[in-house]
Every structure is written in C-alpha cells, then in structure tokens.
UniProtKB/TrEMBL annotation, chain B:
Keywords: Cell membrane, Membrane, Transmembrane, Transmembrane helix, Transport. It comes from the Bacteria. One of its GO terms (biological process) is transmembrane transport. Its main location: membrane. InterPro entries: ABC_transporter_permease, MetI-like, MetI-like_sf. This is Sugar ABC transporter permease. CDD domains: TM_PBP2. Belongs to the binding-protein-dependent transport system permease family. PANTHER family: ABC TRANSPORTER PERMEASE PROTEIN, DIACETYLCHITOBIOSE UPTAKE SYSTEM PERMEASE PROTEIN NGCF.
Length: 295, 294
C-alpha cells in the first residue's frame, strides 16, 4: 500500500497500540521469569524490581526434585511437591497419542464422507458435526462413570479416551479439503482397479500434508492445554499432565502462602516447550490458528 | 469382490473408513449425551444404585439460587469478556495489518493463547497478588489505592475476565488479521484517491467486510466463555463469597465434590439446551451475514 508510508497520525496511533499490546503481552511472562530466580526470603523486597538481587536456582532444583523436603522448606518452599519431569512426560504422551491417532482417524472418516457415497453418510456426517455443539460438561459425567466402570481411572487410556478416536472439527475441516481435491487421479486409479484404501493411502493422503498438519497443530495446542478431563482422571501424581500438576502444586499449600518461587519456576518450565515450538514452527502455528476462522 | 455390487462395496468401504471415528462418536458423544439425560432423572452419588426421581432435579434446579446465580455470573462474564476482547483484537489486527508482517510480532501476540488456562491463571495470580504483585506496586506508584482483585467479591469476576482477555486478544487479532488480508487493497487505494479519511475507511470498508470473521469469533467465543471453568478453578475456586461460582464450576462441583450426579446432570442438560438455542440463533444470523464481497 502506497498511502501509508508517511507517518500519518493514524499510523502513530497504530504503532502505539501495537507496542503497548506487545509490552502488555510479554511483560507478565518476563516478570514471572524474574520471580523464578528470586530466593523465597526476598520476594517482598524485590517485588518491584525487574531483576533479582541474589539470583538463585533453588526454585528450579526444588521443582525438579533435587532438594529434600526439609531443604525445600528451608529454602522457603511450602513443602508442596510437583514432579515436573514426570508431568512433562505425561503431557507429551497424552498430547502425542491424541494428535496422531485422532488426526489419522479423522482423515479416514473425512475421506469417506468426501468421496465414498455410502449408506447413511449424510446423516452421520451431520451428527459428527453436531457433536461439536455439545458442551463438554454434559458428556463429562457419563464419560467419567464409564472410565470408572472400566477401571481406567489413573490410566493413560482413560485420559485419552474421549479425545483420541474422533473430533468433529477435524472431520469437518479435512472433509472440506478432500472435496476440493481434483477427482481425476483418484478416478483413474479406480479404473485401474485400486480400492478405496489404496487410493486413500497412495493418492489422497500424500496430497493432504498441509491440512493434516493444520489439524494436528490445532489439536496439539488444545490437548497440551486441556485441564478438566485429565484433572478428573489423573488423581495420582504419577499420571498428572502439566496443567493438572501445576494446579495441584498451587492448591497444596500446607503452610498457607503459596510457594511463589517454586510455582513461578514451574510456570517458566511449562512455558518453555511452547516457546520452543513457536520458535521452530511459528509460521505453521500462526497460520493454523488463522485457518479456524477462515471459513 | 466380484459378487458385490458397487453400492455394497462403497458402503463396506465407507463404514471401514469411518469405523474408529464412529466408535468414538457413539461411545464418547452420542451415548453419554443420552445417558446424561437419563442420569438427570435420578438421585445418584456414584456409590449406591441410581434412584429414579423423575423431574425432581429440574424442579430443585429452578428453585436453587446458586443455579441462577451461576447462569447470571456466566452471562455477566461473557459481557465483561467478549466486547473488550473483540475490540482489542480488532485494533491490534488493524495495526498489524498496516505496520508489520513480522512473524516475531505475530508469534509474540499469539503466545498467551498457546499457554494453558492454568498457566495463564498462575501468571496473573502472581501479578495480581495484593501484597507481592507488581500490579498493586504500579497502582501505588501512581498514587492510587491498592486493590484485592481476585480476593475481592466485587472485583474477582472482572479480574478473571481481564485474565482471559489477556489470553485471547492475540487469538482474536490473528483471526481478524486473516480476515483483513482477504480485503482487496484496491478498495483502500481508490478510497484514498477520493480523499476518504482512514477512520472512514475503517468504518465503511474494513468493518463491513470483516463481518463473517466477526460472526465466527462471536459465536465461538461466546459459547466458549459461557463455559469458563479452568481459570476459576485455579484462581478463585468459585469464591470469594460465591462471586465467581459460574455455572460450569457449580456443575462440576456438584458432580465431583458433592457427588450429586443426577442434579449436576440436570443442570448440564439445561446448559446444553441454552447453548444449542444460542448457536441455532447465531447460525440463523450467520446465514444472513455473508461477506459483502460475495
């Protein structure tokens, strides 16, 4: 655009908005990072400073379980515990299983809805899409009861169960894509005697890398951050995902005041994977998120 | 399989393809949704057998002040949350569209949305701590009175809304930015040749052409924030003095703290109806809101 190269008043306002928003967005995170290096005794005295007086790693040692309970209380901990390594691994497994299996299942179903005229396909597709409208709190109780009856509480299978088989949005989104693919190659393959499975794996799937990655990216964001379901299923510390572990670390405060140093260190550690992902896949993440509103 | 007709073969393959997703749909959406209705007609604490009580739960619900309070708080929360979030997101998107294509800026603006509600709640619990938090330090620095924020019944829900605005405005901005980029630049160019001011361009070109994205953002964010739970579970647990006991928090509490599965289900089915009615209404409006470009 030619008209905006000058420093017009509107342009000044726009810069002001953008810079303010960037500061508002990033400042709290930097402040949390600072707090994670502050020794417990100095939280009050350094509360308005941008840098700690005597930076320490004790908060990090504490959350990685490198200090004994006595040491950690001496270092200003609340005696609360978090096993951040275990919950990080749990989060990776939880998210990984769901993203891979759900994306694959949804691609299969989406392809059938787009290309195979089977009995009842319209009705079922409508039902799949409608499932997006059910608030999760409605299915929560029956699903919890089912997991309990199957003995799947505190198990990874129980945690991924409601998510990993299908997701209405993923089916809807991928079907739109498959419909937009030109039919010629698939029809030629069909004439050569290839069945639907062969066509799906050999032709359609290799062409769908981009939309599959979009779906996978969105599912990764949602599942990495999912709280309520894993919170209900994983009551045992060894099964907790990051959000669940952070919440229980926050709420077990035997000595009243939360262990701010430890909590902020845990917050920083839990933020790091997101920042790494953003660093490597920034463009894909931004574009995937934008895609959701594009239709 | 020469003995099968084309039709049968298609149906066989069709069902083979959708099989895993269909199981997921039946087992974790369709059946539990029906079962929730069934449970809502019972008195059930998970341990004993469910006891059929007919419509008692629904009758109790209508007489339960906490239920109405929860609905009211959720609606109030939506009103606090959405307009400001959408406005900030829109300003941000317009600013970014004008000034920069930097991926770093986009990534930074989107970052809060990529962090979990729990994480974001912890960040702000610390920032808003009445004694140690930086927000009160800044407030005193400017000569104002420090506040209790999440600890004050009059401010708690507003604080939760502020936290969620912080998390979601970047997402809003990204969605609007994608919408802005579909608007042909020549519209602005010819408008500027005719001496139209930037503000008029925003009102006469940008806003009308953004309507489809606007409707999408409104539908998803209204139903989403009406069901706010995570942030409240971490920051206030429904308090102080029930000032943040929104409807979903009250439902989860009834189910998993008080073990009143029937009552919780009755409320969740009601919530589902409300959300469904809202979505249908919105879809009706959405159909009437195709972009003026088409």
């Amino acid at each position: 655009m030619i008209l905006i190269k000058k420093m017009t008043p509107a342009r000044c306002v726009a810069w002001l908005v953008l810079i303010t928003m960037l500061v508002v967005t990033l400042f709290p995170l930097l402040f949390v990072a600072k707090t994670s290096f502050v020794p417990a005794g100095e939280l009050y005295t350094t509360s308005t400073q941008l840098l700690p007086d005597n930076p320490t790693l004790s908060n990090y040692k504490k959350i990685f379980g490198l200090l004994s309970t006595e040491e950690s209380i001496a270092a200003g901990g609340s005696g609360a515990n978090i096993n951040i390594t275990t919950s990080m691994i749990n989060s990776v497994i939880f998210t990984g299983i769901i993203v891979i299996v759900q994306t694959f299942n949804c691609a299969l179903a989406a392809y059938a809805f787009a290309r195979i005229p089977f009995y009842g396909s319209k009705l079922l597709f409508g039902a799949f899409v409608a499932s997006m409208m059910i608030p999760s709190v409605v299915t929560l109780i029956p699903n919890f009861v089912l997991m309990r009856d199957l003995g799947l509480l505190n198990s990874m299978l129980g945690m991924v169960a409601p998510f990993f088989l299908m997701h209405g949005f993923a089916v809807f989104f991928l079907r739109q894509f498959f419909i937009s693919l030109p039919k010629d190659i698939e029809e030629a393959a069909q004439l050569d005697g290839a069945n639907s499975f062969m066509i799906f794996f050999k032709i359609a799937l290799p062409l769908s890398w981009a939309p599959l990655m979009t779906v996978a990216t969105l599912t990764t964001i949602n599942m990495w951050n999912e709280f309520l379901w894993p919170f209900l299923i994983a009551t045992d510390d060894s099964m907790k995902t990051l959000p669940v572990a952070l919440q229980s670390f926050k709420s077990q405060t035997p000595q009243g005041q939360p262990d701010w140093g430890g909590l902020m260190a845990a917050t920083v550690v839990a933020t790091i994977p997101t920042i790494i992902m953003l660093f490597f896949f920034g463009r894909r993440i931004v574009e995937s998120v934008q895609f959701t509103g594009g239709k | 399989m020469p003995f099968m007709s084309r039709k049968m073969k298609n149906s066989l393959f069709g069902y083979l393809f959708i099989f895993p997703a269909l199981i997921g749909f039946l087992l974790f959406y369709a059946w539990p949704a029906g079962r929730a209705v069934g449970i809502s007609f019972t008195d059930w604490n998970l341990l004993s057998e469910p006891y059929y009580v007919g419509l008692d739960n629904y009758v109790d619900m209508l007489e339960d002040d906490q239920f109405w309070n929860g609905l009211k708080l959720s609606a109030y929360y939506v009103l606090l949350n959405i307009p400001l979030q959408v406005m900030l997101g829109l300003f941000l998107a317009v600013a970014m569209d004008r000034l920069t294509k930097s991926l770093f800026v986009k990534a930074a603006i989107l970052l809060p949305y990529l962090l979990s509600n729990v994480l974001v709640a912890l960040v702000w619990l610390w920032m808003l701590d009445p004694i140690l938090g930086i927000v009160n330090s800044l407030v005193s620095f400017f000569g104002l009175t420090p506040q209790a924020y999440l600890g004050d019944p009059d401010q708690a829900l507003v604080s939760v809304a502020a936290i969620n605005i912080w998390r979601h405005m970047g997402l809003c901005a990204m969605l609007f930015l994608a919408g802005l980029q579909t608007i042909p630049k020549y519209l602005y160019e010819s408008a500027s040749l005719e001496g139209v001011t930037e503000f008029q361009m925003f009102r006469k070109i940008t806003l009308p052409l953004l309507r489809p994205v606007m409707v999408f953002v409104l539908v998803t964010s209204v139903t989403g924030s009406f069901q706010i739970f995570d942030t409240i579970a971490v920051t206030t647990a429904g308090g102080p003095l029930d000032s943040t006991r929104v409807i979903v928090y009250y439902i989860v509490q009834n189910a998993f703290s008080f073990y009143k599965m029937g009552y919780a289900s009755a409320m969740s089915v009601t919530l589902c109806m409300i959300m469904l009615a809202y979505t249908l209404l919105q879809m009706h409006i959405m159909r009437a809101s195709e972009s003026d470009l088409n």
